[in-house]
Amino acid sequence: MLKLLSVLTFLTLTLPFLTHSFSPDHPTDRRILVLLDDLALKSSHSLFFKSLQSRGFELDFKLADDPKISLQRYGLYSYDALILFSPSVDRFGGSIDLAAILDFVDSGHDLIIAADTNASDLIRQIAVECGVDFDEDPAAMVIDHTSYAVSDTEGDHTVIASDDFIKSDVILGSKKIEAPVLFQGIGHTVNSENSLVLKVLSASPSAYSANPKSKLSNPPSLTGSAISLVSVVQARNNARVLISGSLSLFSDRFFRSKVQKAGSPKKHEKSANEQFLTELSKWVFHERGHLKAVNVRHHKVGEADEPAIYRINDDLEYSVEIYEWHGKSWEPYVADDVQVQFYMMSPYVLKTLSTDQKGSYFTAFKVPDVYGVFQFKVEYQRLGYTSLSLSKQIPVRPFRHNEYERFIPAAYPYYGAAFSMMAGFFVFTVVHLYSK
Fold first, then answer.
1. How distant, in Å, are the alpha carbons of 16, 89, 96, 299 from that of 117?
2. Are 401 and 356 in contact (CB under 8 A)?
3. Does CATH number 2.60.40.1930 belong to domain 291-401?
4. Among 58, 90, 185, 424, whose CB has the most other CB atoms within 10 angstroms?
5. CATH architecture for residues 15-284
């Protein structure tokens, strides 16, 4: 009886997580843990949180040092994504630490990190593990005397109006961002050897990172457009990470602020922070740019069933269906750069797949005159989209002894030579025997 009660209790606690969690059929994150330095951030950053809740996300707000917080329960993750709005935290509460957060991302879950001038070593270390290095000077901020946001007070030009966005509709949406984004915080650089990190919002060529309250004694370590203000990472397991050097970037104050970029006569009634972060969060939480492949098929031309083995020089057809998740439904994915390889040690055949514009991709080719164990491979990687890695193994055999043509056209000269020699020998014999 006690065992039955234990099982029922376990199912009662875990079933809601299982039914509403991230799944291949519904890849959008739904349950998000938000860790805050101060619960006052719920009101000062309410517009960003409300935009997530209006799209159906369930936000669980906790203080970062809460001793009861945990990402897992009974071996299952309780959340699909994690937002760290706690730049000054030195140690998380409960069972959360650096290793737990990295394991969370390694398990395919998503992460948003907002740092600030008071960023702790722990937050910096998480960023480093994601391929991003913040300025080592703890007092440094991004300063720009050319592309700053014009205000009534001159200030120290640390409030930047940036409009250097990544050129990707899948990451930032198809609607053009007209106004600049307000940013005040610390800059970072991306690891040049890490191809998974992308700069989404960059500083202008005139920007630099330094302490605004002291005079420069040495050249700044970070300068120009090499400074990234906001970066994203898409891991090989398709987990997504957003890293910002500014917590104010998400604030209601910056969402509602009028903005005028220095040197520009145009004054915008509203900054682009809300549009920028809404579109970017759609990408981070898999509402856009998530691909899936189904119905991978191959068969001989003129047949419908998939064979267990091919023969050299067979004519075959290959097809696959690819769809993109649009937040609520799967829509056909349309592209002209999807390729398939017929692979054994190296690709013997490389074909670009044709499409019917309805999600179906297909091609036909002849099996090479080489026998062995081959693979149909589709390795699709495109900026902003989740990667697809498909493979199907199939053996290829040579002709059997009774499958060769009885008379091979290429051997006709040899046939002619043999019969002509026989005829010549017959004529020679007749002449030798019967002529005087």
1. 39, 12, 23, 60
2. no
3. yes
4. 185
5. 3-Layer(aba) Sandwich (3.40)
